[in-house]
Design goal:
It contains twelve helices and six strands. It is an alpha/beta fold. Strands 1, 2, 3, 4, 5 and 6 form a six-stranded mixed β-sheet that branches. It is globular, with a radius of gyration of 23 Å. It starts with a helix and ends with a helix.
Length: 284
């Protein structure tokens, strides 16, 4: 088969791109052609799940998804099968320069009320927020400011802009306050770093006007806001690092789609294998 493709002027690597299968999968099937395979249906299911979750899931998460579908299976078997058919999560961690909005004391610096107590059984009791930066084509940049609920890790609101203006943080805050007023059963605390946005009078006065407590990390202490940092790391690992730079508008669309997927579909071990939204709706 490989000889015939080459003879007609086609390369196998080009064919793999068109039909969207890993090269290892092709060689596996060539090697095992004619042999009886008792795991055919399972391999098909694993391949479907791998593609469904945008190739972001490794064997452990695939195992959890199979269990949700009723399979009684060990993660070691899933690992073996994924190796056999050439399915591998190629997303990877990479350090990047952290966006820093600190400009000294330009307003009010709040106490660290959370003190790294990030867990809570109460929705909307503890929120965290931060800003991160992305590079785009043509030397453009994109800035993302999400607000996350520590109850389930859900991104309850966010804003994306080309510049790190005050509106980047104030607009999602106003949306979050609308959610808090409607659904919160306990006084809310929102935690951030000491960036100038969060020291600004408009941010502080908006919190005070709606009886929301303000909390801040200590200067140059990333661990004080690790949930926000962890979210940025996961987001960039799964949909940004290793990809070609794209325009601001295309990257904005990808991030919006990712956040929806993260909230509604991406399972988390500490949420009993549920997504943040599934956990919230099943617990209510």
């Amino acid at each position: 088969m490989a000889f015939e493709l080459k003879k007609e002027g086609f390369r196998l690597k080009d064919i793999f791109v068109v039909v969207d299968i890993p090269e290892a999968t092709y060689h596996y099937h060539v090697k095992n052609f004619g042999k009886e395979d008792t795991d055919t249906e399972l391999k098909t299911r694993i391949t479907h799940l791998f593609k469904k979750f945008h190739e972001r899931y490794g064997y452990k998460r695939i195992t959890e998804e199979l269990k949700k579908l009723g399979y009684s299976i060990n993660h070691k078997k899933v690992y073996r099968i994924m190796r056999e058919i050439g399915l591998k999560c190629v997303k990877f961690m990479r350090k990047s320069r952290r966006y820093n909005s600190y400009k000294g004391n330009v307003g009010k610096v709040a106490k660290n009320r959370l003190s790294r107590r990030f867990s809570t059984p109460i929705p909307l009791q503890k929120l965290v927020t931060d800003i991160t930066e992305f590079k785009c084509l043509s030397e453009e940049k994109l800035y993302l400011n999400p607000i996350l609920d520590l109850y389930n890790g859900e991104v309850i609101t966010f804003e994306i802009k080309k510049r790190p203006t005050l509106d980047l943080v104030v607009e999602p805050l106003k949306k979050a306050i609308g959610i808090i007023k409607k659904h919160a059963t306990y006084r809310t605390t929102i935690h951030s770093d000491q960036g100038w946005h969060y020291q600004h009078n408009q941010w502080v006065s908006t919190l005070q006007a709606h009886d929301v407590c303000q909390s801040m990390s200590r200067k140059a202490t990333c661990a004080d806001n690790s949930p926000a940092e962890n979210f940025f790391g996961i987001l960039k690992q799964e949909m940004y690092y290793g990809e070609k730079l794209v325009s601001y508008e295309e990257l904005k669309e990808r991030i919006e789609e990712y956040i929806y997927w993260y909230n509604n579909e991406r399972s988390k071990a500490k949420l009993a294998g549920l997504s943040p939204v599934e956990y919230r709706t099943q617990s209510s």
